[in-house]
Amino acid sequence: MDKKITSYSHFIVYAKGWYERGDNIIDDMKKLVSERCALDIQYVNDSDVWSVLVDALFEHVNPQRNKWVLAGLFSPHCSDPDFLKGWTNECPLERAVKKILSELMTLEIKGANFKLEDPDPFILPVSDEKLKQWEDLHG
Description:
Largest sheet: 2 strands, parallel
Mean pLDDT: 84
Shape: globular
Number of strands: 2
Strand content: under 5%
Radius of gyration: 16 Å
Low-confidence stretches: none
Structural class: mainly alpha
């Protein structure tokens, strides 16, 4: 059976470290949303980023795990100053994006029922070294 490419491919590829990270993770996500949804980036907003990442979480992560991840983002301790030490310069969306990306990063691709697209340097920067590694692995 031929595996289909997941529409969240570039988010997973990003989460797994194949793309170079920009200075602002939200801006990176907006570029990926723009590509996935065929929207000019000027029309992509924070709620689009949230919506697409939550959809990716529900599409690819175990349902029990999704509930735990989302509940953790909204639990009372998430506003506790002791919990937030080290996150103090991040907005809540940035924390949520990082948490969801960390879940996507751990996905097992080898046995999955989908496949990933190659990293695309026209979407986000990809180093020549990473492209070579990708070709060696997925060639």
